[in-house]
Specification:
single chain; about 220 residues; mainly beta; 60s Ribosomal Protein L30, Chain: A; 6-stranded antiparallel sheet; 5 helices; binds zinc ion
């Protein structure tokens, strides 16, 4: 995450290799070419025009987080909830705050707002600069799935801390990094994760980046 925030938008891992490590998760692609969603073993790429593609298995990526999703807890969210209220309910459901969680929320939504980012060119800008070019998309009255993770504060150099969610609708035509949602009814499935494996990019872009300085990584919500 520190490298990504400094503009390491080039990795050597392929989508096919990523799927050997998990069937559920999120990330991005080389050149920061859109948002990644991994759901039920399928990788989706959300381009900056909002289109949702199934990328070639050889497509490479600089950053992603995946797990084999095996929930150990389910909670029913059967009333209208804002995005902040969803996070409050999840906060109450996560039993410990020193481990990692994978979270999947399947349901109906009255409103979902997502973003994607346009591809970047070398020399790459930093992540905040790239995200400032984000394109925002909103849709009303849809069914779909929120996919994401919760990471503790101490993991801040290797992943986004707190909640990080992406979304994809049931028709697999509307997706992106989740900015806002209004839920009507859903089931949240939560997996406690006690193990983290990290594969570092084997690229000149990563090797030449100075990671000795403390980064202040922000994944902007708006
Ligand atoms: Zn994201």
């Amino acid at each position: 995450m520190d490298a990504l925030s400094q503009g390491v938008f080039e990795g050597d891992l392929t989508c096919a290799e990523l799927l050997q490590q998990g069937d559920f998760g999120l990330g991005t692609f080389n050149d920061l070419d859109g948002e990644m969603i991994v759901l039920d073993g399928q990788v989706y790429q959300v381009k900056s025009d909002g289109s949702v593609l199934k990328p070639d298995p050889s497509t490479q990526l600089p950053f992603a987080t995946v797990t084999f999703f095996r929930p150990d807890q389910k909670i029913s969210l059967d009333k209208e909830l804002s995005y902040a209220q969803i996070k409050d309910l999840l906060d109450a459901a996560l039993p410990f705050k020193n481990i990692f969680y994978a979270i999947r929320i399947d349901g109906k939504f009255s409103q979902v707002t997502v973003r994607s980012v346009p591809p970047q060119w070398k020399p790459y800008p930093d992540l905040a600069q790239a995200i400032s070019e984000q394109r925002i998309f909103q849709k009303n009255d849809l069914a779909g799935t929120i996919i994401g993770f919760w990471f503790p504060h101490y993991a801040k150099n290797i992943n986004a801390t707190g909640y990080h969610f992406h979304f994809i609708d049931r028709t697999r035509t509307f997706a992106g990094h989740l900015l806002d949602a209004r839920l009507i009814s859903a089931t949240a499935s939560i997996q406690s994760v006690y193990k983290l494996n990290i594969a570092l990019p084997k690229t000149a872009n990563f090797d030449s980046t100075d990671l000795t300085q403390e980064q202040h990584v922000i994944i902007p919500e708006k």
